Amino acid sequence: MLKNIIKMGLQSIEEVFTFNRDYEAKVAETADHIRAQLGSLRPEFGITLGSGLGDIADAIEDATTISYADIPNFLVPTVEGHEGNLIFGNLEGIPVIGLSGRTHYYEYGDLPFNYGMLRTTFAVNVLADLGIANYFVTNAAGGLNQKFKVGDMMVLHSHIHNQPNPLLGEHRQFKRVDNGERVERFPPVSPTYDPELRKVLHAAGQEHRDHLHQGVYMGVTGPTYEAEAEARSFRDNADAVGMSTTGEVIVARGRGMRAVGMSCITNEISASGDNPANHDEVKRILESPEVRQRLTSTVQEFFRLYRAS
Questions:
Q1: Arithmetic mean of pLDDT, 201-225
Q2: What is the dihedral of CA 83, 142, 156, 101, to 10 degrees?
Q3: Is the pLDDT of residue 63 over 80?
Q4: Running DSSP on this structure, what letter comes out for residue 172?
Q5: CATH number of the structural domain spanning residue 206
């Protein structure tokens, strides 16, 4: 039995090593597979439909849906609430690719060679290989800022990446979307979230202005919710905290994409740092018709305003 366990462990490490070694080729293979199905569509945005934004998939017109299970090198999300579908079509007249469901670092963070972050950001690299210029990221987050209430929205102004960096290790041969040059070894990510796209998103949320904020998002590894002292410490520099997004945006910016982002506040972290949230509670908030309508209408309005600009 011990020999079988060791053998399985070695096989797993070999698979991880191979994925890392062939990473660029796998990204290109996946992009080619998706490109062949896009036809004449030339998406301007990739949008990750985080928790609570599944209704956006239904708003995409002339949509084609592909299961992640049918896309080479994609992983089906293991977390409940993340469907695992790629949808492409037009959203308020703008050609988009929607990613319904994401991979989180904590799902594969126990594996070597930075595999967890390479998996977490794989889809964003595919979007860049497809030549998509803009990345719209959404997420669910805990409210550190005491002014934030459950169901509120936060336009991301900046972020703090408290996970392994997805660019660790080999300097890849990827090309930038904006100029076709090789990605830099030490890429700047500032301005992290594009000022013009942020303005459009802020304008899009004015119907819900009493629930709209702007702030800094902190991305942590999870999967635990924060201890009291952690939450108090994070609050000194961030307004909301979650377990995704920042690695994706680092890759997007490193590859020359513009980024814009929005969080849905699913739980309030008290002044003392107490955070008794659990996954079921977060899901209930995201399944609330009022919250879903608020998120969906804001994203739709963003694309209407972007088309008109």
A1: 97
A2: -10
A3: yes
A4: -
A5: 3.40.50.1580
